[in-house]
Amino acid sequence: MQSTIQQDYVQSNAGTHVSRWRRFINWADGQEKNHWGWTAGILVGHGCIATIFTMLAIVFTGNNFIFWPFAIAAMAVCVITNLAAMPTKVTIPVFFISLLVDVAIILICIVNGLTA
Prior knowledge:
With 116 residues, this protein is mainly alpha-helical. It is built from four helices and no strands.
């Protein structure tokens, strides 16, 4: 028999929702044990693959100067965050955002190249 002093309290987790961004950041934070692998992968993947394709897209579609600072900044942000030894919860999102910038530049270059 329960009294007014001792009552059972049941907390419901039905109202809690973890956003995709928070789940991604938690996953990236859990990747800290693979920090050196992510650093190498980001520098090689962005520096040797993504930046090269972005530069080729810029040059082959008219060499429009406005795209160069964005391509350089996307690569520089990845290099700076890795050289600063930022945690993976910073470097991984920066890498994916810089890849989105590169893909946007490539797509804009292709559209400009097709209409010219």
